[in-house]
Amino acid sequence: MLTGAPGVGKTTTARTLVDRSDRGVHLESDRFFHFIRSGYVEPWQAESGEQNALIMRIVAASACAYAVAGYDTTVDGIILPRFFFQPLRDAFRDAGHRVAYAVLRAPLEVCASRARTREAQPLGDPSVVERLWRDFADLGPLERHAIDIGGKTPDEAADLVAQRLQDGSLAT
Fold this sequence. Notes:
The chain is mainly alpha-helical. 48% of the residues lie in helices and 12% in strands. The protein contains 7 helices and 5 strands, in the order βαβααβαβααβα. The strands form 2 sheets. A 3-stranded parallel β-sheet has the order 1-4-5, with helices on one face. Strands 2-3 form a two-stranded parallel ribbon. α3 (49-68) runs parallel beside α4 and α5 packs antiparallel against α6 (126-135).
C-alpha cells in the first residue's frame, strides 16, 4: 500500500516502482470510487462510510487476485490509518499475502501546489488537501512507515520506497 496526501506523488512513485518489476500491477484505488455513477458520496463526507468500506473490499479483492496470479501489486490511494489501512491490510493477510505500508510525505505547500494543477476536483480543493495532509501528519504507531520525499524526483522517491521494502521496514 502506497499512500499520502493528495499531490504528494503517490501515483507517480507507484508507477515508477511497478515499471521496475518484471510482473507488476498498479491499482489506483481512487479510480474505484468513480465507478459509482449515481448515489456517489465524496469519500471524506461523514455519510460515506458504507460506500468507502465497499470500495476498499473491492480494491482488496482485485489486488489479491493479481497477487495470486503472480504480480507484484501496488495499491495507491488515500489509505488513512484510521479508516482504510486495517481493512486492506487484514484482507491481504487473510489471503496469505505479505503486506507493506508506505506513507509518502512532502510539505503541505508542495502537495497543495501539485493538487491545484489537477483537473479532478475536489482533490484540488486546498481545504480538502490540507485536511487530508493533516490526517497523515501523525501516524501514531505507524509512524515508522512514513517516508519524506520532499524535494525528491520520482525516481529518488521510488528508490527510497524500494529500499524500505527490501529492508522490511514497511512490513505490517
